[in-house]
Amino acid sequence: MLANQIAAGEVVERPASVLKELLENSLDAGARRLDIDLDQGGVKRIQVRDDGCGVPCDELALALARHATSKISSLEDLEQVATLGFRGEALASIASVSRLSITSRTAATDAGWRLAGEAAAPEPAAHPVGTTICVEDLFYNTPARRKFLRTERTELSHLEEVIRRLALSRFDIGLQVRHNGRTLQQLRAAEDRAGRGRRVAAVCGDAFLDQAVELESERNGLVVWGWIGLPTYSRGQPDQQYLYVNGRMVRDRMVAHAVRNAYRDVLYHGRHPAYVIYLEVDPAMVDVNVHPSKQEVRFRESRQVYDFLRHAVEQAIAGVRPEGAPAPVSLQSAAPASGVAEPAPQQQPMRLHSGGGASAPGLRQQAFYQALQQPPAAPLRTAEQLADSAAGMPPLGFALAQLKGIYILAENDNGLVLVDMHAAHERITYERMKQDFADAAVVTQPLLVPVQVSVSERELRAAEAHSGLLRELGLVVEQQGPQLLVVREVPAILRGADAESLLRDILSDLVEHGASERVEALVEDLLREIACHGSVRANRQLSVPEMNALLRDMERTERSGQCNHGRPTWTALGLAELDGLFLRGR
Question: In this structure, what DSSP letter does residue 192 have?
Fold first, then answer.
């Protein structure tokens, strides 16, 4: 019992920890429906009933024994865990700090059996096929730990977050949740795409689904899919980030870092993206046996996973097709005007999917990307040419006028489009400069006085293991002592940067994440500043052809919906919205 209570310190932190373990056991048992009853924030009672395979009578007592599990039978099983639970610690730990009872029945028997607390033997009990576990009076025998529990409302919020994670992890599971006898949540199993969308909207809110795009990519045995919020749906805290690896909800800093970097170019500083992402990898390539909570994982090919995930999210945000997808019909621009950027290289729009709703601002971004997938068969023409023909409108329409030297007013098939001309041109210029920089080899600048940097043993090993990567980044680094590195060359574009701080930051990233984008981030910051100063300024008068050229460039440029600082570059008012402003049709 003492060993179980010690183990419970890691497994059972609060009622939410208990609920997580019970739900995972139900899913491993093949449940398709879960009924969850909670009292007083889970402190008084947590009961989970499932319709899984059940536990045979002669194994009920064994199920509560420490390290007893039917999910792992060999070392090979442990190296490629496919179940959510596998340690055999949860029920024993929970039973040691609560009053626990388990009632179960298998399909092979006509009646169920119940084992309560420390009873010597199970007793017959009426029960359908499946299992019910009831945990009452949590921490009744460890009052010191009970004092650390928060208010009922706070503990309930943690329980609800566990339920949200479960609801998103298994769309095929039906859920009913009650607290103090009141129904909080009732979700039907979702078997098709529309049903999954409804489940995501029910859990994350309609606003998220309205302003999210679907993510789907596969490469080298890695698969990622899910929903990622548009930059316009960024949040002040990372409270809507759900990541699943092979169906297991995890919190992985390396993966979170990859997603955050994919959004780096389109979010305000301090804002956080929202996403529901499912990553599927070979179970043998991921170690889930890292911590008793099973929320941390380690990837054997962490760099490959990092690059794959970041690239997939970047592509979805940029609105381009995955590599190898058929190219869309070309969009031909109106004649470029002097002083406005030439059209960017043709990109391949990615197929994005709307979650529903029609009035959210994010849908205007989605409609733009979706319109790019079906460009008109005839070449795009000037406004004058369009008036005399039946050619279709481009997604951002044709320019009508310039307002206050800041905004471009354009007309498309849906209504009025307003564009911040400086913000839009800034993104176009920046994306072109990034592409030019990526296409050219990194030029290094030798330092007149090499910079010595004292490092730890871990940092030194990271520098040795990633010496090739450092050279690719334009850093020539040599070891000069047991814990001393010397920086001899830096990227020419960063010749004024603090070489010591740059190297330390890169080594810190390599130690923690196995990857670093420090040089890339600094280069992009510099290019952003150049693009900002090199773009058309406010109060500059543009001709109609110049404005149309800018609109066409936007349609060809990745991430053109946001400027380099994360602000939107355009918005739209549909005809119905315009009619509403003037009460037309009432």
Answer: S
CA atoms of 240 and 145, how far apart (whole Å): 29
Mean pLDDT for the stretch of residues 412-430: 91
Compute the distance between CA of residue 279 and CA of residue 170 in angstroms, rounded to an integer: 14
- 375 DSSP 8-state letter: -
Q: Which long-range contacts (CB under 8 A, 24 or more apart) does 490-494 make?
A: 490/444, 490/445, 490/447, 491/442, 491/443, 491/444, 491/445, 491/519, 491/523, 492/443, 492/444, 492/445, 493/437, 493/443, 493/523, 493/526, 494/519, 494/522, 494/523, 494/526
Quickly state the pLDDT bin for 398 (edges 50, 70, 90): very high
- Bridge-partner residues for 162, per DSSP? none
Task: Note the helical H segments in 205-267.
Answer: 206-210, 253-262
CA dist 315 and 295 (Å) reads 28
Do 65 and 92 form a contact (C-beta atoms < 8 A)? yes
Predicted confidence (pLDDT) per residue in 251-284, tens digit: 888 888 899 989 988 887 778 999 999 999 998 8
- Region of residue 287 (left: phi > 0; alpha: psi -120 to 50; beta: else): beta
CA atoms within 13 A on the CB side of 250: 27
SS3 annotation, 476-515: EEEEEECCEEEEEEEEHHHCCCCHHHHHHHHHHHHHHHCC
Question: 212 - beta bridge partners?
Answer: 229
- Residue ranges with strand state E in 344-406: 398-403
Q: Which residues of 47-60 are buried (b: 16+ CB within 10 A; e: fewer)?
A: bbbbbbbbbbbebb
pLDDT digits (tens, 9 = 90+) for 184-220: 999 999 989 899 999 999 999 999 999 899 999 999 9
- What CA–CA distance (Å, rounded) separates 257 from 210? 25
Q: Average the pLDDT over each of 24-38, 72-86, 141-155 and give the range with the smallest value.
A: 72-86
